[in-house]
Amino acid sequence: MSDTLLKVRDLKIGATIYPPGEKPRDIEIVHGVSFDLAPGKVLGLIGESGAGKSTIGLASMAYGRGGVKITGGEVWVNGRDILKGGHKDIRRLRGAEVTYVSQSAAASFNPAKKIMDQVVEAAVEQKKFSRKEAEARARALFAKLGLPDPDNIGERYPHQVSGGQLQRCMTALALCPEPDLVVFDEPTTALDVTTQIDVLMAIKEAIRDTGVAALYITHDLAVVAQVSDDIMVLKMGNTVEYGHVDQIINNPQEEYTKALVSVRSIEHEEKAPTAEPVLSVRNITARYKGTQFDVLHNVNVDLYPGQTLAVVGESGSGKSTLARVITGLLPPREGEIEFAGRKLSPDLKGRSREDLRELQMIYQMADVAMNPRQTVGTIIGRPLEFYFGMRGAEKKKRIIELLDEIELGEKFIDRYPAELSGGQKQRVCIARSLAAKPKMIICDEVTSALDPLVADGILKLLLDLQKIEDVAYLFITHDLATVRAISDNIAVMYQGKVQRYGGKSKVLSPPFDDYTDLLLSSVPEMKLGWLEEVIAHRKMESAGN
Amino acid sequence: MSPIVKLLAQRIALSLLLLLLISIVIFAGTIVLPGDVAQSILGQSATPEALANLRAELGVNDPPVERYFAWLFGAMQGDLGTALTSGQDIAQALSSRFWNTLFLAFWAAVVAVPLAIFLGLLAVRFKDRWPDKMISAVTLASISIPEFLIGYVLMYFIAVQLRWFPSVAMINDSMSLFEKLNAIALPIAVLTLVVLAHMMRMTRAAILNVMQSAYIETAELKGLNAFQVIYRHAFPNAIAPIVNVVMLNLAYLVVGVVVIEVVFVYPGMGQYLVDHVSKRDVPVVQACGLIFAAVYIGLNMIADIVAILSNPRLRHPK
């Protein structure tokens, strides 16, 4: 065996795009990338969306998603250039020498088949192990990855286990055929932060114990710093910087890398409550129709004019349900909501147009929150017509003002959503909600689908607009860095209850309750060896108790 | 009770309710139809007294609600009444014809369903290449041509010119299975051509839809070949829509073969129905309508039951 397992030279990858109304044309999305990976080592590929990192990862299996084609360069695996092989050579490589762990295990497992059948399939099909051996291996891997009841979990169907467990099953699937290289494509991105840390540790230990090499793809530099030996920073299909993890994290050379490494640059001083609250949530208990248990238990929070209340929690904590109750989409079982000094009808139907105007919402997925067949001008102009009856020149003037406020400008007025980037789309959604001149905006995970640097820009914009328009934000998020950046008050939610509530400095300072401590300590830090420290610390604590 | 049992019970109850409603519609519909059965039996020269007597004898003067319930309870016990024109017992007259219709539909399905699914899989495997385009073109052409025309064209070439199969699909109880199949070969071919396109295209669309899923990529990255990916990972998740369209077509094979039965002079239910419609024999029309409705609802119910059973989330709850 050679001492390089994977050798990539001047890799070029292209795709055919189909612009509406134009002839299809070929574009290049990766422009000549080279790197080496030794057996048992981990290379982190990092970059924002569109950097080509997943595309490069899949190219090491000679695979192109959709219309993606490898157009040039060499990919050597175990001393063979896999791009020169035929279909059969490529099939023998996939699932045997190189395997893949995707971002969403929930989507990557076939819902109609048992987990065990899927985990052993590649190993058996590639004749690496007999079915019996492969099953024994799978059970051993389930145990090693910390899955509960490792002897029987394989008999379950994918929907019968949790998201974090399924992600570990996917790792077992990748390791089962005893590959030389595993491509991890954002394996923890879809997980809650407290789950991510366990899966990350399980993956790291599995890599160490099996001696397999890995390409670890992610947009989160703090995560990749915990598992990699080397890191390659990518931007728009080009290598920005490539070096040892220590050098990239502690001594980055390029501006782009420095921007990624520097933690959120936003500073926001906590404001003390001033006037009467604009929104008071009083003793809210709620459940969904046809279910038997409450998803919100006696929730009490206040939001003050011109301030930000961050509601933070993991999936299933009830934070989005709280938003549904406040907007009137889910009338609560008990409790009431006071808004701008008046009692709000629990049901959307009972609310006046004024109620609707003063309480706006911005969503996580800006793409689906806009009509793709309307121009930006129409989208922003609609609330102006609806609430204020504006027409013609007056309306256009106001639209342009709003476009200037969101830093896009007049030239965007005739564009369609498809012509905008993710960050620009979210800005248009912000302008649309501001057009109604609301007292309060509910922001539901508005930066979660965006790249970190773009998300930073959106948060800055929201803070600036808050100063100008004196609008209050109820900011729902799972991301603690975002919470730190923008909130005045924080409510930590866990299993439908407000676990901790108060001013930012109070909530984020010790002494903590157990859950808040777990949540805060699980957020990856841009520091080598952080993962081991946290795990060791937790083991010590649980031994001490 | 487990949710799946509840769901299935609901679905079956819904079917029964639907059948009951349809029985009302059929009964009401045949009552409001214009025309007088007594007149059509006795002819234009009948005296008013004779007509009145016959109407009283046939029970057409009783209140409709009373007649409906008498008819419904009779039908539930297998008594479909007697034909007005011939005085025959309808259930008896229908049963052999009904079995003939089912016999033809069954063999048409045996040929058409596997063929359609196989062609659908093949079209997916060679998507947008010439086999896919050819399959689509041929099946679309065959569904676009009226079925009686296909019937006569096949009859001319295969029965008349080549003399492979008989042109008239007469069967009776004394024939062996092979003789019967030989007799109905042409109608089977026509029916297959008629229902193939619909099922094949649905299979193709359902599987292509599933092929977009992330787990198909997982399967490809395991090094499986294209047929393994389609057969093992895509097909099991596409069963529900495929079964749905298959059942719709099976229902068509039973209910919609009237034209084909007439073209090939096949002694099935369709021809019997057409005969008695022209004679205004209301009880026969009602009986046929009820049976066709029951077949339609029953097959669609089976499709929904299969769809429910094929959903792993319902079969294996958390």
From TrEMBL, chain A:
What is the top-level taxon of the source organism? Bacteria
Query: Quick check: keyword Transit peptide in the entry?
Result: no
All copies of domain ABC transporter, residue ranges: 6-261, 279-520
Q: What is its main location?
A: membrane
- Record's keyword terms, sorted: ATP-binding, Nucleotide-binding, Transport
**How does the protein's chain sit in the membrane according to the entry?**
Peripheral membrane protein
* Cell compartment(s), UniProt: Cell inner membrane
Q: Which Pfam families match?
A: ABC_tran, oligo_HPY
Indicate whether Nucleotide-binding appears among the record's keywords: yes
SMART domains given in the database record: AAA (SM00382)
- What SUPFAM superfamilies has UniProt attached to this entry? P-loop containing nucleoside triphosphate hydrolases
What GO MF terms are annotated? Answer: ATP binding
Protein name listed in UniProt: ABC transporter ATP-binding protein
**Which species does this protein come from?**
Leisingera daeponensis
UniProtKB/TrEMBL annotation, chain B:
Identify this protein by name: ABC transporter permease
Q: Where is the ABC transmembrane type-1 domain?
A: 98-303
Topological category with respect to the lipid bilayer: Multi-pass membrane protein
One Pfam family for this entry, by name? BPD_transp_1
Q: Which residue ranges does UniProt annotate as crossing the membrane?
A: 12-33, 104-124, 136-161, 181-199, 242-264, 284-309
Keywords attached to this Swiss-Prot or TrEMBL record, sorted alphabetically, are:
Cell membrane, Membrane, Transmembrane, Transmembrane helix, Transport
Q: Does the keyword Phosphoprotein apply?
A: no
Name the InterPro entries on file. Answer: BPD_transp_1_N (IPR045621), MetI-like (IPR000515), MetI-like_sf (IPR035906)
Could you confirm whether the keyword Cytoplasm appears in this record?
no
Query: Which PROSITE patterns is this protein grouped with?
Result: ABC_TM1 (PS50928)
The protein's matches in CDD domains, at most eight in alphabetical order, are given as:
TM_PBP2
Chief location of this protein?
membrane
What does the sequence similarity comment in the record state about its family? Belongs to the binding-protein-dependent transport system permease family.
- Compartments where located: Cell membrane
